Amino acid sequence: MTGTLAGIGAGLAVIGAGIGIGMIGGRATEAIARQPEAYSMIQTVMIITAAMIEGVALFAVVVSLIK
Amino acid sequence: MDLVTPGIGLIFWQVIAFLVLLFVLKKYAWKPVLNAIKSREERIKGALASAEEAKEEMKKLKADNEVIIKEAKDERNKLLQEAREIKSQMIEDAKAQAGIESKKMIESAKLKIESEKDAAVSEIKKLVAVFSVDIAEKILKKELDDKKEQQALISSSLKDLKLN
Amino acid sequence: MINFRKFVVNTGWILLFLFTSVNFALASEKEHSEDSSNEEFDARSFILDHVKDSHEWHIATYTSHGEEKHLNVPLPVILYSNNSGLSIFMSSKLAHGHTYKGFKLEEEGEYAGKIVEITESEGEENILIPLDFSITKTVFGMFVSVIIVLWLFLSLAKSYRKSGVSEPKGLQAVLEPVVLFVRDDIAKLILGKDHYEKYLPYLLSAFFFIWINNILGLIPVFPFGANVTGNISVTLVLAVFTFIVTQISGKKQYWKHIVATPGVPFWLAPVMIPVEIISLFTKPFALMIRLFANIVAGHMSLLTFIGLIFIFKSIYVAPGSIFFVLFMYTIEILVGFLQAYIFTILSAVFIGQAIAEEH
């Protein structure tokens, strides 16, 4: 039973992270379309921000890993 | 749970290994590699800069050449202009000289003619005096013979005189 | 950048072909043993055993004469306990639950997977936990990758010394774009061109250590395939290194920001100071968890797709399973690079915040 609950928890975390990273990607694409010359800077900021969100989501995954 | 529990042994070995990696790489790898990359980049930058400089130099030389050529052309044009001016001046001068000369010649010729004429007139006057003496002599010789003939003689003498 | 992408893609393809063949072998072997022993397949322990650290290097399980046998590479065990001092022996002495010099590798219970020391005093059995400095699978795998990293970059340095400043070729052509990527797109971009040189050796070492470990962790043949960067102790140490570098290089502005955050009224200080101090530690903590969880999750999903074959006990699941494993491998190669990049760039960001001057 604990395994199932952990799975649900991980799934919920993934939903949040998915929405967050999706929004970052979308906005970054818009920003690049508006200012193609700022491509590399936007990409770096995008990756850093996505990594932050991913980190939070991974906390949840790790919590699910703990028995 | 022990998946997320750090172990002392692993931490110990990881610290040692990473420190060794860090210091060995820092001293024997990153330094030469980064220096080589940097010096290559600098060399490329330097080569590009010197190429740019050479280009600039070339441009300057070309501009200099153009200036020199232009100056030479100007010089030539000036010289030609001067030569032309001198030529026309000379012609002008020559013409003026010739005019003055000819005038002078004419003048002197006129003077000569005048003096010749005067000489001739005085010669004629002398001759007239001689002739008149001669005629007078002849008249005086014939006067005694005939009055009529005397008259004729005078008129004929006068006619002769008019020749002059 | 484009050259670099090409390089990553090519490396990925080469590694992929290697992996798929090995996976096939591994999968069929596993299936064979499971069928004959007719046991319920325990996916959880199958996955966790592969992901977790262990005292010997398990290569394969096979059946001969109806008996399950394990093909293991023994690794040195180094223990220190107050009771018996330092003891060093090979892990094969502890195999199959044997007790050696009073040490025993517990297989289940509270200390499962750990080596315990059993001492007898007055007829009672006491269980002690010695300090375990063993060269475990992860330590061994890490040593292998450290040697590979050292070999790669020392020979790179040698080739630079030999070729001088001529155009890169061979190993240089492969590694130089990556070194330049770390220098220009991480260090110079984040730290600025005045400060980056000081931190570049650390960033480069961390980047290549993580990247090479991520890649080697995906090769399922001895002596590679140890889950090094997917081990929390390893990522803990890396995160602590970043933490130490960050704190050492912290300028006045950085500490001022912690003690008195600009733009915050003074009466909020009792709240803000603890928050700022906690945030000092959450940053490296997030670094640790991010790398660990990413790599573990990658290995776990790979193993899950392989495990599907044994869960369904059908060879017909294998093609689909292998297809997904292939797909995951491609993603994991990308993730391996990406996580190295993210770890390095976030370290640079933290250091950059610490060395930022007042504008």
Using the CA coordinates, give the radius of gyration of chain C. Answer: 24 Å
Summarize the main sheet of chain B: none
By DSSP (H or I, 4+ residues per run), the number of helices of chain B equals 2
Largest interface: B-C, 34 and 49 residues
- How many structural domains does the protein architecture of chain B include? 1
Q: What is the rounded Rg of chain B?
A: 63 Å
What number of structural domains do the residues of chain C give? 2
Which sequence of SSEs, written as H and E, runs from N to C of chain C? HHEEEEEEEEEHHHHHHH
- Give the termini distance of chain B in whole angstroms: 170 Å
Annotation field: number of helices of chain C = 9
| First-residue to last-residue Cα separation of chain C | 32 Å
What are the main properties of this structure?
B: 164 residues; mainly alpha; 2 helices; rod-shaped; C: 359 residues; alpha+beta; 4-stranded antiparallel sheet; 3-stranded antiparallel sheet
Give an overview of the whole structure.
The complex is a heterotrimer of chains A (67), B (164) and C (359). With 67 residues, chain A is an all-alpha fold. Chain A has a single domain (2-65), classed as F1F0 ATP synthase subunit C (F1FO ATP Synthase, Up-down Bundle). Chain A is built from two helices and no strands. In chain A, helix 1 packs antiparallel against helix 2 (39-65). Chain B has one domain (8-163). In chain B, helix 1 runs antiparallel to helix 2. In chain B, 8% of the residues are buried. The model of chain B has no long low-confidence stretch (mean pLDDT 87). In chain C, helix 6 packs parallel to helix 9. In chain C, the strands form three sheets. A four-stranded antiparallel β-sheet of chain C has the order 5-6-7-8, with no helix packed on it. Chain C has a three-stranded antiparallel β-sheet with strand order 4-3-9, with no helix packed on it. Chain B binds chain C through residues 2-15, 17-18, 20-22, 24-26, 28-34, 36-37, 39-40, 43, and chain C through 48, 51-53, 78, 112-114, 131-136, 138-139, 142-143, 146, 149-150, 153-154, 156-157, 160-161, 164-165, 176, 179-180, 183, 200-202, 204-205, 209, 231-234, 236-238, 241, 292, 296.
